UniProtKB/TrEMBL annotation:
Stated family: Belongs to the BetVI family.
Signal peptide interval: none
CDD domains attached to this UniProt entry: Bet_v1-like (cd07816)
Domain of life: Eukaryota
SUPFAM superfamilies: Bet v1-like (SSF55961)
Name of the molecule in the record: Bet v I/Major latex protein domain-containing protein
Length: 239
């Protein structure tokens, strides 16, 4: 089915900052502000309920055409006052399917949660040392499993998380890879196509010596992971 978009707008009497704060802090405001028959509860399952990556469940009272849905916050742009979320569970998904590209992007961005669970042969653990492990500036420490041919440990700093363009970039700042390369930066992008998506991977590197080979083994490992990720997403989103 074709993915579609609808838009509408409303002139409001309230100050833009107050409207924005109420939308952003929805799970505090809505159950109190709306008529008693509207919202039963809004619960935060992951994160703080306000920042990107947070997951919330809205439960509606009797009489509502929707009884429950689970949403993940995708974008919170304070400067432009833009708030975006994806519905990832609940009544609405009985009639509407999410676009696969979003599933691929979410799984890449939420690497720290997905990869050790989905691919234990390749990833023993992912620890967050600084930040939340998702946003730029976060530092994470990866311990690889038997499936990794060259690298057993790696410390990475997330540099770019571009949600609208679905671009994710990180620098390797410590670990086995820096025995072979003075610097190593990886870039991943998910691009939509008519059916499914295209996942693009690239790296920028400086060799430690002239004898150091190009990082083809790293590229092959990444592509193998992406193929496995695609299979994992399909297998876990059949319902």
């Amino acid at each position: 089915m074709e993915r579609k978009k609808i838009e509408d707008e409303l002139d409001c009497k309230s100050n833009a900052n107050k409207i924005w704060a109420s939308l952003r802090d929805l799970y505090y405001v809505y159950p109190k502000a709306f008529p008693p028959g509207t919202y039963k509860s809004i619960d935060v399952l992951h994160g703080d309920g306000v920042h990107p990556g947070s997951i919330r469940v809205r439960t509606y009272k009797e009489g509502s055409p929707i009884t429950m849905f689970k949403e993940k916050i995708e974008v919170v742009d304070e400067e432009k006052k833009i708030f975006g979320f994806s519905i990832i569970g609940g009544d609405l998904l009985k009639d509407y399917k999410s676009f696969k590209m979003n599933k691929v992007w979410e799984s890449l961005r939420d690497f720290i949660y997905i990869y050790p669970k989905a691919f234990p042969h390749d990833y023993k653990s992912v620890e967050v040392l600084e930040g939340d492990g998702i946003k730029p500036g976060s530092v994470r420490f990866i311990t690889y499993g038997e499936g990794s041919p060259l690298v057993k440990v790696s410390k990475e700093r997330i540099e770019v998380v571009d949600v609208p363009n679905k671009i994710f970039c990180y620098n390797v700042i410590e670990g086995d890879l820096l025995k072979y390369y003075k610097s190593f930066k990886a870039n991943v992008q998910v691009v939509p196509k008519e059916e499914g998506s295209v996942l693009k991977w690239s790296c920028e590197f400086e060799k430690a010596t002239d004898e150091t080979p190009d990082p083809d083994a790293i590229k092959d490992f990444a592509i193998k992971n992406f193929k496995e990720l695609d299979d994992y997403i399909i297998a876990n989103n059949k319902a």
